[in-house]
UniProtKB/TrEMBL annotation:
Protein name, entry field: HIT family protein
Pfam families, sorted: HIT
Lineage: Bacteria, Bacillati, Actinomycetota, Actinomycetes, Mycobacteriales
A GO MF term: catalytic activity
GO biological process: nucleotide metabolic process
Active site: H93 (tele-amp-histidine intermediate)
Amino acid sequence: MSSVFTKIINGELPGRFVYRDEDVVAFLTVEPIRYGHTLVVPVAEVDKWTDLDPHVWAKVSAVAQRVGAAITSAFDCERAGVVIAGFEVPHTHIHVFPANGMAGYDLSSVMAMDETDADEMDRAAEKIRTALERV
């Protein structure tokens, strides 16, 4: 059975994509720490990042770095936070989000889907896409 991320990648479920190529995608999470919280995901459905082909991992990391630079610019934050957890969905993914301190790294304090504002999510995705054109 496909992971929820594979379903998003394949268009079976909606996603706010900010980046896409043949190996890696990046889209906003539906349960963000802050608006702009993006998941960088390999297209290949591999559960653990340590099991990824090293070339795919290098590409996922490079995309996460670009997305992080875009987030820092778009949201005027001190840093782009990065977390690799992977317990909630069995498909490798990197969380990249606006961060101004360590408090923002707590994935247990995310907004629930029904707490997010759809217009704000759309604006966040557009801000990241625009910033990616500059990095």
